[in-house]
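2024-03-11 09:14:02 DEBUG pipeline.ingest accepted 1 chain
2024-03-11 09:14:02 DEBUG pipeline.ingest length=404
2024-03-11 09:14:03 DEBUG pipeline.predict start
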Amino acid sequence: MDLLQYSRLQNPTTKLLQPHRRFTVFSSSLSPRRFSVRSSLPSPAQNAKYHSELRAAVDAVERACRLCVDVKRSLFTSDGRILEKNDQSPVTIADFGVQALISLELGKLFPSIPLVAEEDSAFLQSNNLVDSVVNVVTDKTNSQGKALTQADVLGAIDRRGEFGPEPATYWVLDPIDGTRGFVKGSEALYVVGLALVVEGQIVLGVMGCPNWRGDKPASKGPEYENESGIIMVAHVGCGTWAKGLPDLQNRSVNWSRCLVDGYTLVHKGRYCISESQTWESLPLSSSFGSTTNVDNVGDEEVVLLPTCCGSLCKYLMVASGRASVFIQRARAERVIKVWDHAVGVICVQEAGGKVTDWNGDQLNLAADEGERKALFPPGGILVSNNSLHQEILQIIASKSSVIS
């Protein structure tokens, strides 16, 4: 049995798909300019405190996902084979294109809010790829008839803020989390992730996964069998919601509420780990073995789900109830980046889950005072359905040498 199919079938939580009451989270947004975007929002978020920012974020991420799909087509032949490339130019163009596109869109509407993101333009210029990025961004941006220039795109990529020890407000973007998945083929997941931090707190997030395969609604016929893609949104106090990427502009298709799964026994949960780490490197391995064979799980084993590639697709799995836990160990030789986690944190929390370091504390977004790019979680990061969180922390604490 396919492991992702297994994760859907084994979820003990019944999803809440009926309309939810409106949440009383009203206020003005962060100095928005007048704008027009195409995307509707889940009803609880339509009048929420940061509804304007959320609407703009959904629209920008949707455009970015479509940019990724278009660029990715250049990697494959008509029969699905990967074209031979001598460099990483397609994924580079998509990565920088997404960052430029989202920065441009948000910069028009909220020019005072800086962007913390993965890329800078120096690499792009040194590899003579600026024109290629301008071309892909021009097709997707809401430029209102004004032709984009190299200077526009480079400036958007390098749009930064200055930070200090005080709480700050800024966007956090991972243009493509899971670039290896981007070039692997249609089945490998990758995510565009965008979050807004206000005065040090994550208040909203949008994740777009262009090749996510969900359950096809009964109302759709066989002609929709090949549809894929999901947009997941979260707003503080309003829950986490998802909608198929092909349905995003169809107001007759409702958003679905996302909830974490209901597993309460550690050994019954479904786990995700980083591709660069092994189960044996994690403290839970002292209590449980692991297997990817869902049809033959031993009494002292847990199920590991393959969710290539990157961190954000693991958060998406937990927030959607397809996985119970994502655990990542911090390593001295590799800095954990904020864009690999910020949007996932609010999506999981608003779906009923929990995210902490291995001491059980919230992630400190201001640990990197100057740039807000790095996280330094003691031990590592634990993402769970909440029900399993405390017991897993106790197992980790019993192996106290793993927490620094």
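2024-03-11 09:14:41 DEBUG pipeline.report Residues 14-38, 216-225 have pLDDT under 50 and may be disordered.
2024-03-11 09:14:41 DEBUG pipeline.predict end
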